[in-house]
Specification:
It is built from 9 helices and 9 strands. The protein is α/β, with parallel strands linked by helices. It starts with about 20 loop residues before the first strand and ends in a 6-residue tail after the last helix.
Length: about 325
């Protein structure tokens, strides 16, 4: 007897190998995916400008990286004695405009380098609702807890979202013409918008994404559908009943791995996992001969793996 309906996931192509590199951008679900890829030691850059929910700010950052347009103090604002940018997360800030600019430009340079070297760009879209700064008219990445009167909330039309996603694909491929763009919609609900408004928002994102996918410009991974259908039970949520539990994240990762990770990488992934577990092991007697032998054997395994994959770091 079947106890759940399963989402059919077509195999992705080209699949991810250890010779590839990945960038993940977007909502906190992009962080989950990036953390899994990094755990298994795939070359991966995850959310260099922090969590971003709306695709327009993502496109703005990619455009800035393509143009090589650095952040200057004129791009920044001050609140609570900290300087930052409305185009990035609050974590990328500084005590002075110069310090904040350095933090932002360091990440911008890293993103530009990653775009040149990467083969896969994975974007997780969180919401179609954006906050437009009334002073400059731009949709922001983060409101930095500024007064609500500084912004106007709006639901971005599907045609605008579609144009934005097409631009993201074009910007990514201006660095690497063979870049694979993979879109996914975050299953995390934005309850501040309201449940009905959240569904409207997700519907806009899904419609826009599939119009771009139907043009052959990108691929789609159904994380939203997996969570809403296969995992439609509150036991798969965290305590806030909004974010996915660790078990749910692991399940979605397994589906992603099955669809998008090349079979040749699985043996290496198993070895990386075994080494990580070994390094995390805390013995009762650290000075015992058995533990010293265990650590020496583990060091040999790490060395052998790094000889084949020099970028790996344990």
């Amino acid at each position: 007897m079947k106890w759940r309906t399963e989402v059919e996931i077509p195999g992705g192509t080209p699949k991810i190998r250890y010779t590839d590199a990945i960038i993940t951008l977007g909502s906190c679900f992009a962080d989950h995916l990036g953390s899994k890829l990094s755990y298994y030691q795939f070359p991966c850059m995850g959310n260099p400008f922090g969590v971003i929910f709306h695709p327009v700010p993502m496109a703005n950052l990619l455009r800035r990286a393509v143009e090589g347009r650095s952040f200057t103090p004129d791009d920044l604002f001050s609140t609570q004695n900290r300087w930052g940018s409305l185009q990035a997360h609050t974590s990328l800030s500084g005590n002075t405009p110069e310090e904040a600019s350095q933090v932002l430009n360091r990440q911008l340079d890293a993103l530009g380098k990653a775009l040149k070297d990467s083969t896969h760009l994975v974007l997780t879209l969180g919401t179609a609702y954006g906050y437009r700064n009334l002073e400059n008219g731009h949709l922001v990445a983060n409101c930095h807890k500024l007064p609500g009167t500084a912004f106007e909330r709006e639901l971005t039309p599907v045609k605008n979202l579609m144009a934005c996603l097409e631009e993201i694909c074009a910007l990514a491929r201006s660095f690497n013409r063979e870049m694979t763009c993979l879109f996914t919609v975050s299953p995390i609900r934005h309850l501040r918008d309201g449940l009905v408004e959240n569904q409207r928002s997700k519907a806009h994102l899904i419609t826009a994404v599939h119009q771009v996918v139907d043009k052959g410009l990108a691929d789609y991974f159904p994380s939203y559908e997996i969570f809403m259908d296969e995992l439609r039970d509150y036991r798969f949520y965290d305590r806030d009943l909004i974010h996915p539990s660790e078990q749910a994240v692991d399940f979605v990762w397994e589906q992603f791995e099955s669809a998008w990770i090349h079979g040749d990488a699985k043996t290496v992934m198993q070895e990386v996992d075994a080494i990580r577990r070994g390094l995390a092991h805390r013995p009762i007697h650290q000075d015992s001969a058995a533990h010293r032998e265990f650590r020496e054997t583990l060091a040999i395994r790490v060395k052998r793996l790094q000889e084949k994959h020099p970028y790996m770091s344990f």
